[in-house]
């Protein structure tokens, strides 16, 4: 008998395994031994887990940084405020980023600042320019309105409930205690331009729509060609004009309407009064302005900047720290005079503009030429239908073409937009420096880090 042919007895099964076999689990599953995944799976799992862990670490650090600065300023919200006093109010100015067509929301650079202001019970007002030049126009108009009210040309634009809340000097002091947050270099350029316009331009009120309408009257695009003999015979027979489009289009529609013979009292705004604001000279110096808090901002737009977008997504804590430190500067209220070197604020951000932004003036001119090229056909159709020279087609009956009056309004709206875009881009283009005037030397201040924060950064 060969002992080698004898098979070894099977290993003794434990009671737990025997019980599991009776549950219906295949016996082959108990004989399998665990092994490592393949190389590709190991690479995938390692990279995925590393990214998830880094993302969680970044967000946790961001939350800790935000909470740290909230704890520093939350005691300010517990301070009592007199019933006739004003809370500290901050103005946040932002402008459209060149090349970003989706600028319909508050910039993401405000997100790290907002929790700190809320924790310190500081009110803030956001002025977001949706097109180039909007912020400059808004700042200039606000300054002119304040100047007119100070000179007594206009009543102060304050609600009746706020008139009793302190004297104008007290409100002025609270305004200076607030400050102005400027997000990005584009907003910085527009803000400085708005300050210059507000203090140097005339205080005379000008209706931009009316001024541009008068300017466009003589360009010849709406001139009516010589009327035909049939049309002259119609005038000789005394046939009334069916629509205002029969009038000479070079004049504003409605001037010779039947209601023009009825004399109605003109509105108060059109009464011939002595406009004393036109004689107000430019001030030799301007009063102290709310201190500035420039906050760097870069909006990554374009396929070439996708790697930087990914980097920013996993390093949100740096933005949170920068925003919290900027808000803490304003809350600490430590200031210094504005210097000429501050004009180079966030100069490196202009290197992230898309190359296509250089063609903005050419794009505006191309759109203008295309519109005026198609305008004669639209105008001829509108006049032919208004004069009854032909019947409207089936398509024109379903969707009536614009009338001459509507074409004039459309042209005015487009010209205002094109010219505003050209002026706005001229302000923020990289080649244009920030405006500066000697009047601002003693009127502008900048928030800086408080001494404690400086010492902490140096010791770290």
Automatic annotation (TrEMBL):
Localization annotation: Mitochondrion inner membrane
A family per Pfam: Tim54
One CC-aspect GO term: mitochondrial inner membrane
Keyword RNA-binding part of the UniProt annotation: no
Principal localisation: mitochondrion
Chain segments carrying region Disordered: 216-259
Highest taxon of source: Eukaryota
UniProt xrefs under InterPro entries: Mt_import_IM_translocase_Tim54
This protein's record includes keyword Transmembrane: yes
The protein's name in its UniProt record: Mitochondrial import inner membrane translocase subunit TIM54
Compositional bias of kind Pro residues: 241-252
Segment forming the signal sequence: none
Bilayer topology annotation: Single-pass membrane protein
Keywords, ordered alphabetically: Membrane, Mitochondrion, Mitochondrion inner membrane, Protein transport, Translocation, Transmembrane, Transmembrane helix, Transport
Similarity-based family: Belongs to the TIM54 family.
GO biological process: protein transport
């Amino acid at each position: 008998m060969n002992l080698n042919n004898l098979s070894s007895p099977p290993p003794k099964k434990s009671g737990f395994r025997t019980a599991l076999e009776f549950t219906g689990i295949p016996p082959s599953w108990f004989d399998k031994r665990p092994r490592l995944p393949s190389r590709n799976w190991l690479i995938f799992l390692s990279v995925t887990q590393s990214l998830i862990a880094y993302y969680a670490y970044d967000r946790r650090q961001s939350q800790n940084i935000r909470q740290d600065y909230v704890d520093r300023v939350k005691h300010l919200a517990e301070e009592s405020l007199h019933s006739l006093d004003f809370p500290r109010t901050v103005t946040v100015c932002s402008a459209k980023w060149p090349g970003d067509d989706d600028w319909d929301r508050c910039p993401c650079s405000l997100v790290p600042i907002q929790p700190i202001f809320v924790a310190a019970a500081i009110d803030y007002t956001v002025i977001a320019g949706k097109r180039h030049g909007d912020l400059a126009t808004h700042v200039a108009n606000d300054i002119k309105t304040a100047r007119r009210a100070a000179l007594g040309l206009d009543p102060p634009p304050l609600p009746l409930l706020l008139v009793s809340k302190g004297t104008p000097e007290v409100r002025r002091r609270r305004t200076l205690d607030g400050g102005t947050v400027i997000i990005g270099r584009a907003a910085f350029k527009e803000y400085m331009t708005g300050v210059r316009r507000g203090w140097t331009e005339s205080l005379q009120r000008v209706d931009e729509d009316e001024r541009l309408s008068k300017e466009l009257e003589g360009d010849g695009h709406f001139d009516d060609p010589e009327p035909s003999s049939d049309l002259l015979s119609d005038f000789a027979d005394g046939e009334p004009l069916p629509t205002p489009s029969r009038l000479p289009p070079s004049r504003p529609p409605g001037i010779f309407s039947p209601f023009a013979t009825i004399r109605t009292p003109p509105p108060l705004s059109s009464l011939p009064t002595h406009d004393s604001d036109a004689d107000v000279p430019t001030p030799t110096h301007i009063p102290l302005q709310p201190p500035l808090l420039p906050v760097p901002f870069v909006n990554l737009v374009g396929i070439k900047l996708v790697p930087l977008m990914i980097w920013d997504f996993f390093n949100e804590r740096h933005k949170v720290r920068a925003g919290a430190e900027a808000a803490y500067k304003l809350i600490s209220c430590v200031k210094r005079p504005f210097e000429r070197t501050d004009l180079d604020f966030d100069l490196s951000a202009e290197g992230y503009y898309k190359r296509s932004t250089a063609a903005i003036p050419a794009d505006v001119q191309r759109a203008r030429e295309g519109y005026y090229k198609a305008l004669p056909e639209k105008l001829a159709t509108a006049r032919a239908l208004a004069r009854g020279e032909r019947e409207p087609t089936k398509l024109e009956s379903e969707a009536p073409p614009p009338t001459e009056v509507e074409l004039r309004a459309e042209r005015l709206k487009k010209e205002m937009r094109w010219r505003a875009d050209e002026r706005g881009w001229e302000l923020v283009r990289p080649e244009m420096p920030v405006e500066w005037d000697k009047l601002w030397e003693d009127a502008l201040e900048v928030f800086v880090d408080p001494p404690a924060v400086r010492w902490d950064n140096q010791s770290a």
